Amino acid sequence: MRRAELVMALFMAAFSLYIMWKSTELPVGWIEGEGPGGGAFPFWLAAGMLVCCGWIVLRWARRQSPPSRSDEPYMDKTALRVFAVGAGSLLVMIGLMHIVGVYVVIPLYLIFYMRGIGHHAWSVTAPLAVAMPVATFLFFEIALKITLPKGYTEPAFYPLYELLL
Amino acid sequence: MEILGLLLEGFAVALQPINLALIVAGCIAGLFIGAMPGLGSVNGVAILLPMTFLVPPTSAIIFLGSLYYGAMYGGAISSIMLGIPGASTAVATTFDGRPMALQGKADRALVAAATASFVGGTISVVLFTLFAPPLADFALAFGPPEEFALLLLAFATFIGLGGDDIPKTLFSIFIGLMFSAVGLDIVSGDPRLIFLDLPGFYHGINFLVLAIGIYGIGEILWTVETTRGEMVVSRAAVTIRGVVRALTDLRHNIRSMLMGSFLGYFVGILPAAGATPGSLMAYGVARTMSKHPETYGKGNVDGVVAPESANNAASTGSMLPMLTLGIPGSPTTAILLGGMVIWGLEPGPMLFIEHKEFVWGLIASLYAANLFALLINIAFIPAFLMVLRMPFTILAPVIFILCVVGGYAPTQDMHDVWLMLIFGVMGYLMRKLDYPLAPAVLAIVLGPLAEASVRQSLIMAHGSFGIFFDRPISAIIMAIAIALFAWPVLIAIRRRLRA
Question: Which residue of chain A has the CA closest to B416?
Answer without folding.
Answer: A94
